[in-house]
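Project standup — Tuesday

K.O.: blocked on the structure for the chain from last sprint. Re-posting the sequence here as requested.
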Amino acid sequence: MNVLKTVFGSVIDKGVDIVDQFVEDKDQAAKLKQAISLRMRDSADTALREQSSIIQSEAGGESWLQRNWRPVLMLVIVTIVANNYIVAPYADAMFGSSLTLDLPERLWDLMTLGVGGYVGGRTAEKSIKTWQQGQVAKKQAGRDS
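H.V.: unblocked you, prediction finished:
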């Protein structure tokens, strides 16, 4: 649950904090906060599933380019970074000249998003699945008692 709180916590907290400003009854406010949190988590879950289905359909596509454009883009960006920070300094030290390629900030952000998004997306996906299993277990425990 801590990972889910880290990933979605600030958005959920902002949505839930507003309730206290408008609802004076504490019990009703608590119910409303819980409903908002569940809706926001469900929305995040839906978004992750949609993103996952897009990536899965690309990965299962007929064309090589359709299946591999994301990894190729990431490799190109990583190659530019490796050139600028590893190859070029050594080439300059040994030969007195080197070639560096400007990496626009947008591409750097894209690489960060590509790597971090994959890790964060998988973490969030697993956290949501674990959270949902806990909710099902709570419902079943409530029925059994």
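K.O.: great, moving the ticket to review. The chain is about 90% helix and 0% strand. Residues 2-60+104-144 form one domain.
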